[in-house]
């Protein structure tokens, strides 16, 4: 049976959390955040969910565990 690894990214204004842990304060532009998501895709992560409201974005990714 296939097993999955999950990554949850939450971004509120200029603060980003990965799986609930605060990582960094950034001044990223939307195009940089777009590039970041593309980088995750190149690492095998698939975007499986997204929620946006006001200046908050939540993303859910998964990839197979080998």
Give a written overview of the molecule.
This protein is α+β, with helices and mostly antiparallel strands. Helices cover 20% and strands 53% of the residues. It is built from 1 helix and 5 strands. The protein has one helix at 30-42; strands at 4-12, 15-18, 21-25, 46-53, 56-64. A 5-stranded antiparallel sheet has the order 3-2-1-5-4, with no helix packed on it. A hairpin with a 2-residue loop joins β4 (46-53) and β5. The radius of gyration is 12 Å and the shape is globular. The model has no long low-confidence stretch (mean pLDDT 82).
What fraction of the residues are assigned to beta strands by DSSP? over 45%
Tell me the number of strands. Answer: 5
Q: Spell out the helices and strands N to C.
A: EEEHEE
Q: Radius of gyration over alpha carbons?
A: 12 Å
Please give the largest β-sheet: 5 strands, antiparallel
Total number of helices: 1
* Low-pLDDT regions: none
Oligomer description = single chain
What would you call the shape? globular
Indicate the mean pLDDT.
Answer: 82
Short recap of the structure:
By secondary structure, this protein is an alpha+beta fold.
Features:
1 helix, 66 residues, alpha+beta
Topology (elements, then pairings):
Blueprint: E1 4-12, E2 15-18, E3 21-25, H1 30-42, E4 46-53, E5 56-64
Antiparallel strand pairs: 1-2, 1-5, 2-3, 4-5
């Amino acid at each position: 049976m296939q097993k999955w690894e999950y990554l949850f990214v939450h971004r509120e204004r200029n603060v980003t959390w990965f799986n609930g842990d605060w990582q960094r304060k950034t001044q990223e532009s939307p195009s940089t955040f777009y590039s970041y998501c593309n980088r995750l895709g190149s690492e095998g992560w698939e975007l499986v969910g997204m929620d946006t409201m006001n200046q908050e974005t939540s993303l859910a990714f998964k990839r197979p565990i080998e």
